[in-house]
Amino acid sequence: MPDRLVVLYRGNRPPATALIERLADTVYATEDELPYLLPGADALLAWVTITPAIREAWPDNPEKAPRWVHASSAGVDSLLFPALVDDPGVVLTNARGVYDRPTAEYVLGLILALAKDFPGTWEHQRRREWRPRPSEGITGRRVLVWGTGPIGRAIARLLRAAGMRVCGAGRKARTDDPDFGTVHGSTALSAALTEADYVVLAAPLTEDTRGMVDASVLAAMKPGARLINVGRGGLVDEEALIDHLAAGRLAGAALDVFGQEPLPARSPLWDMPGVMISPHTAGETTSEREALVEVFLDNLTRHIEGRPLRNVVDKRRGYVVDETRPV
């Protein structure tokens, strides 16, 4: 049994706490309590991940730092601070696999909502206006999914099943990918950008991907295309996006993640035509919490028994590396 497991939570503790407590000496910490409870812990379950609290509470003495940190999220960018990354004795795992299908369903829903102008329909309903009008189809429309990890692959499979023409963007170009068909290298995207009706961002936030969708990328996109971001807000230069939306070069955007969360009330994105905003919930479902705990309990059992953990993050790259599938 681990000497001590700290569970960082905010608002609600994870479900199945009795199962966790049977396997580990468990203490629960809010973000304010974490600096007092983290030093000396054997493991940390980061039930909350998008927070600076873990970095700020991390012990200065490496001997007092946890040997294992599990993130209840797919993205781990907020955990990649030097003290954790540079310590070879700290293993970082994540919830890879839990969010794949839910996020793919969300992206399909966003594409349908944009193509069919559901926001406009709801606004006409609110005003009690009868406004018949045609809508766009999605069959045959081109989609570029930027990010070829498990979430990007789930998105590609579902959009293909809906009749869309999908390709990918990743670090390694190839033409025989089982889910994307063609994957464009991240340094040669111009042709794919000019052809895509939708560009979907599903990449992790790393030093290589931060700000990857800048003014030049937005300018290369097909006029009238739409941008969907279910990755991380830091992937996009928001000011450049606002400029391109205001100029009418893009037909719209669906944004689930932002550089600053919550999105400030002063942001122009709230009121821009053709823009849909959601509060970082693309992968959340009513059964998500139970699925997250199942992944953690499996890893906790492995940790206790000394077996290899699932979903070990390459701390230098910032994501789980699957050697059987290039990214």
UniProtKB/TrEMBL annotation:
Keywords recorded for this protein, A-Z: NAD, Oxidoreductase
D-isomer specific 2-hydroxyacid dehydrogenase catalytic domain sequence ranges: 30-313
SUPFAM superfamilies hit by this protein: Formate/glycerate dehydrogenase catalytic domain-like (SSF52283), NAD(P)-binding Rossmann-fold domains (SSF51735)
Molecular functions per Gene Ontology: NAD binding; oxidoreductase activity, acting on the CH-OH group of donors, NAD or NADP as acceptor
CDD domains: 2-Hacid_dh_1
Pfam families: 2-Hacid_dh, 2-Hacid_dh_C
Signal peptide per UniProt: none
InterPro entries attached to this UniProt entry: D-isomer_2_OHA_DH_cat_dom, D-isomer_DH_CS, D-isomer_DH_NAD-bd, NAD(P)-bd_dom_sf
Keyword NAD: yes
Superkingdom classification of source: Bacteria
Keyword Hydrolase (UniProt): no
Domain D-isomer specific 2-hydroxyacid dehydrogenase NAD-binding: 108-282
Family listed: Belongs to the D-isomer specific 2-hydroxyacid dehydrogenase family.
Entry-linked PANTHER family: 2-HACID_DH_C DOMAIN-CONTAINING PROTEIN, D-ISOMER SPECIFIC 2-HYDROXYACID DEHYDROGENASE NAD-BINDING DOMAIN-CONTAINING PROTEIN
UniProt protein name: D-isomer specific 2-hydroxyacid dehydrogenase
Origin species: Streptomyces azureus
